[in-house]
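FW: tagging you since you asked about this chain on Friday. Here's the raw sequence from the shared folder, copied in full. Didn't touch anything.
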Amino acid sequence: MSEKIVIKIGGDLLKENLNYVISDLVKIHAENKKIILCHAGADIVTTVAEKMGKPQIFTFSTKGYKARYVDEETRDIYLMVVAGLNNKRIVKEMISKELPAVGISGIDGGLIIADRFKKAMVILDGKKKLKDNYTGKPSKLNVQLIETL
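HL: got it, structure written out here
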């Protein structure tokens, strides 16, 4: 049985160095390792959202963490870009290098279940506000789906 490896890649690395990332994946695959690639793409989300006329708002949580202010429209744009555009670009590049690739999102097949933050507060325009509640924390992973793929 071959070893499985999970790799998480942030949006900045993908934006500027996708070819470098793919070349590393080719090397890992050549070592007979099964790759599970998790990716982001927040910068691309910001670019697409702004092209769609939806300026993105960044704020800080009450604990001081920078966060995207997520309303329903922003949530939908995020899903569209990360699960669609960004994911399919990565899959296309992997297949072009003869890497076996299937692109799914955390929603597909209940791959990742998350609990929404109930009382996530942000500071916006100097005032504390309840976030629109479209953020959360992963709480369950469908390992069987990953094994099947």
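FW: Residues 4-148 form a domain with the Carbamate kinase fold (CATH 3.40.1160.10).
HL: agreed, and Helices lie at 11-30, 42-51, 72-96, 143-148.
FW: great, closing this out.
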